[in-house]
Amino acid sequence: MHAGVDGWGRPFDYLAVCRALEADVVALEEAWTSTGGSGENQPEAVAAALDGQVITCTLTEGLRARPYPQATDRWKPPYGLHHVSDHSLYFGTERRLSSRVAALSRVQSAEQGDWGIAVVLGPRVTVEDSRILHLPTLRRDRVRRAAIVVDVTVEGHPISVVGTHMSHLHMGSHRHYALLRDLLRTKARPNAVLLGDMNLWGPPVGTLLPEWHRTVKGRTWPTWNPHSQIDHILVRGSIRHVSGEVLPDAGSDHRPVRAVLTL
Fold it and tell me: How, if at all, do strands 111-121 and 53-64 pair?
């Protein structure tokens, strides 16, 4: 979701993107809920658009900058010119922003809000229970991490759906993978789907989560010239995939992934 804005802070139509998925379950990463005036609640808006319900988890409090006045048709400033003053999102809860960054006019005028993950479930899915699995904060990470586990029934079959947004490997995410692997053995049903922004390529994900199988293979990041897949839909148990695909650029810096699953 990237808080519903591009790298310059310009909004894109995330509701149209979510409707176009035509999915019974949608996992949202980097979803934004305003606490600073606009009243925007992206998870609730997506749930309303899909006539469904939503379970959310805030990972940090942050700032969403206004659209950058010198924005071009690029997704964000070129890498050679990219500077902290050009960011569209700022997080200073787990690691404080420096005084220089905090003093920037772009930061001073930014909107306050909550940034996190959500799982949206459509009307064909019966929700039985849900819980949040909190992961320990990594020293180098600017945000907290967690997984949302939702127990559902689909056409009489009990399934767990897990949405998450993992940290980066250089920040120590392998520790989170090990913990999440162990937690999901007891905190999720044998037939389960794990989906989200894993910030890690497919082969090491398969090594760190050996009980899970990838259903989509394709480059998802960055949107404008994708060279890596770091967004995954994984299954275990008796769940099999009918099809899986990476969808076109939808406005975020990641491309959406979609899978059709069966038991």
Answer: antiparallel
